[in-house]
Amino acid sequence: MKGMSVIVKQISRLMYPSILVLGVYIILHGHLTPGGGFAGGVLIAGAFTLLVLAYGADEVTTARGKWRATLGESIGIFLFWFIAVLGIVQGGYFFLNMVNHGEPLQLFSAGIIPLCNIAIGIEVSAALFAIFITMSVLKLGDKV
Amino acid sequence: MSLLLYFIIVPLGGAFLLPIISRLRESLSDWVGNAITALLLYCSVYGVITASGKTVTYFVGGWRPIADIPVGINLVMDGLSGLMLLIVNIVALLVTLYSVNYMARYTDKGKYYTLFLLMVAGLNGVILSGDLFNLFVFLEITAIASYALVAFGIEDEELEASFKYQVLGGTASALILLGIAVFYQTTGTLNLADASRVIAGIGHTPTVLFAGVLFMAGFCLKAALIPFHAWLPDAHPAAPAPISAMLSGVVIKVLGVYPLCRLFFNVYGITPLIQDIFMVLGVVSIILGVFLALSQWDFKRLLAYHSISQIGYVVLGIGLGTPLGILGGLFHLINHSVFKSLLFLNAGSVVYATDTRELKELGGLQRKMPVTGATSQVASFSIAGLPPFNGFWSKLIIIVACVQAGQMLFAVLAVIGSILTLLSFLKVQRYVFFDALKEKWKNVREVPFLMCVSMIVFALLCIGMGLLLLPQISAVTLKPAADVLYTGLEYATKVLGG
Amino acid sequence: MVTALILLIVLMILGAIAALESKDLLSGIISLGIIGFALTVIFLILQAPDLAIVQIIVETMTLVILIAAVMKTTKADTVETFGKHSIFLGLVGLVFVFVFIWTAVKAFQQMPGFGSMPLRMASEYVNNGLALTGAGNLVAAVILDFRAYDTLGEATVLFTSVVGITAVLRKLGRNRV
Amino acid sequence: MIVFILAVLLFLVGLYGILVKRNIIKLAIGLIIMEYAVNLFFVLAGYREGGTAPILDGDLAPGTVFVDPLPQALVLTAIVIGLGTTALLVSFAVKIYEKYDTFDIRKIRKLHG
Question: At what angle do helices C49-72 and A37-55 cross, to 10 degrees?
């Protein structure tokens, strides 16, 4: 995959952090406003994808990206699983909302819900990035 | 920690970590896969023995019903779930054992075991779920994992079969989901036990029945009953042998027959009309399935058509609605899981040794592959219903139940189906294992040790499972399962109490 | 509001027919986009902002995936052939559609009408959701607390399909012996 | 009631695509349309007369009617599942094209019967 022109590179370098911040914001406020781990995760994946599209990737970076995506995906979903299992240890129920609910309608409230959103955000962003990178490296022989 | 949770947590956790583990060292995935399925088998045996027909309900997240209306998701383990869990996990363990050598021919074993564990987790989730939408979610996990597994060899034929499977499977899922939407709009609840109460209150209104029709179409498509069978004869033969064994052995039953029984016996309440639909679908599948099988010359494709035919017996038995009929149907369900898995593993061994599935090209393998040959004879006699193998007992019970219920025509058709099955398997035995040994199979050798072990255990199960009918053993396995269906609407009280 | 809804759904149906009948795959996919974005607007009208956000993102992803697939391969549709069978099958199909719609009309007449659905399972969520979970967004409260187990399943589905995609798009399926 | 009928009609259009079309991408489009129809049906079922979005932000007038959050949660799950199935289906389609050089399912029929 080749990169794109200098203008595209510059613009995507400027856009990249803001998309990332927006994604993180949506994930962290998932229990208060519309959106959540899934919507934010897709945005973050979009930010990574933008960067790869603009700068291009050789075989080594692609392989590394694939491995990182797999790793991120596994870790994200494992965290979600782990939060669920922690409920059993804490109070005897799978997926028990065991953390203190805190002050309603504040950023740090609602117990495990924001934590779950973060875990889902990691999983989804890595998963979509994995889909992108796997499908983009596919070469259809010489038929393109 | 409740026993029920192990069935979901353990395979899911294993599957989430396997991509990392297998990257470190590929051979570890064999160990992890087998250890997890072994643990699950232990749990299900333990569960069946200790539960002894009681109904255990587990409220996920601690969300107990508020004002008697469930707000969260609950898991339910009763006699029927116990029996299904037992058979799923037996087949899963033996199949992973078989996979150790068989899948060495394919690349990327780590992904294979990941998908396999996800499939098993999905099956267990469907069986344990007490919530309609949750059942759908786990059904999708199993379905997606099996789409990918069917095409695991990524050859032309496998991709094509899997694509067909995906399109029809996706249609089935859409029908089921639309059914859930209509169902929710009418009853206002997704919990099966709660819905059962609501329906008892409002009766079978046209809306409820419309949802029922959608469920019937969707789940029949998943169970591959004729006329919804188009995907099965492609998908099951194309998959790697262990996956064929899982698909034919347990997946079509857990995704198709089990939800049908749950919904129509425990939630809707069985009526003569629904029984008639079950029985007619069953008989048509028996007869047409076996006729289609007779004309096949591809080993695995022939077995796939027999799966349709044998599922027909299960649905016919359950559809009779009498205690004996339900017992026979469920008994045939688990018997079929055992002997059909074994037959697909036999076919896999033949393919492993010779690389062909064409019956006409094979011949005389009995002397070269004694274990495969002997076990396949056991399985063939079982599926054909010869005494004293397990298939004989369950078919006998179903036929007797038909006669008792006054359905003479169905009884006769079931007998005819059984005879045709025998003919078809005599053909298989003759062309594959007997006849003269062909020149090119001079150097064929028996398959590796672990594959033999797996097949021998299955064969022993085929011979021994008649013992399940002994009163003491039946009291903890078959009887509670049949009671769950026969007592029908008492499900709601058993699950939610009061 | 109902009029607006009806118009949008009719637009979706027309878009669906266009997507299926267009001779060029790319324009078919674009028509599919129309349906997806109309659905987003409907979600907004029906007071489902969470869904609108996710739908618009997923719609974009779906279009990107489909367009990428078509650009890598071919845009030409396959030629449909009509034989003697087609007329017969068409008639059977028409009868089926008629019966289906008729059953649906019969069924929906008995159903609670649009906008007046009884709450049973959900009444607790609406009345005490904030007190029970501490989350202001009740949809988040449902997916990550009351029904978090479903969401684990959902995340697993995504995980499964990614593993499936990487498995199917391997270079080599079998070790050559 | 008319909106529900229209949603079912949309579902039938998708089903028509599955049954009649012979192009792999068109089949995928048919499946996606069915999915949309089901999601639409769910959200229509969850709407309540005069309801607002189920998001509390502190200063709501008492007696506010909320729409049902449960169907919305279910549709959220269903959309993600749909994305997963679609991505898998499309990767199959691309792989099949790589092997057979066509999207026509009549031409890729190696399987008999």
Answer: 30
What is the value of ipTM here, to two decimals?
A: 0.93
- Of the residues C21, C46, C166, the best mutation for testing chain D's interface (the one with the most D CB atoms within 10 Å of its CB) is C46
Q: Which of D38, D45, D96 sits opposite B177 (nearest CB)?
A: D38
Contact A105 D80 (CB under 8 A): no
Position B290: which residue type? V
Lookup: tokens for B483 = 């009671």
Among the partner-chain residues C20, C62, C116, the one whose CB lies closest to the CB of D21 is C20
The structural domain count of chain D equals: 1
How many angstroms away from the CA of A6 is the closest CA of chain D?
A: 31
Q: At B75, which helix (H) or strand (E)? A: strand B74-77
Domain count, chain C: 1
C100 three-class SS: helix
Is residue C116 one of the residues assigned to a domain?
no
Q: Among B112, B299, D43, B201, which residue's Cα sits nearest to residue C8?
A: D43
Residue A142 lies in a domain: no
Average pLDDT rounded to a whole number, residues C131-160: 86
SS3 of B437, please? coil
Tell me the per-residue pLDDT of D13-30, one tens digit each, with 9 for 90 and over: 999 888 888 888 899 999
Alpha carbon B7 to chain centroid, angstroms: 17
Structural domain of D104: 2-49+65-111
Asked if A104 and C148 come within 8 Å (Cβ–Cβ), the reply is: no
Domain boundaries, chain B: 3-496
pTM here is 0.94
| Alpha-helical segments (H) within C46-83 | 49-72
- By Cβ distance, the residue of A32, A38, A105 closest to D80 is A38
Work out how many CB contacts closer than 8 A connect A with C.
122
Query: How far D113 CA lies from chain C's nearest CA (Å)?
Result: 18
Query: Residue B6 and residue A140: Cα distance in Å, rounded?
Result: 43
Check CB contact of D100 with chain C, cutoff 8 Å: no
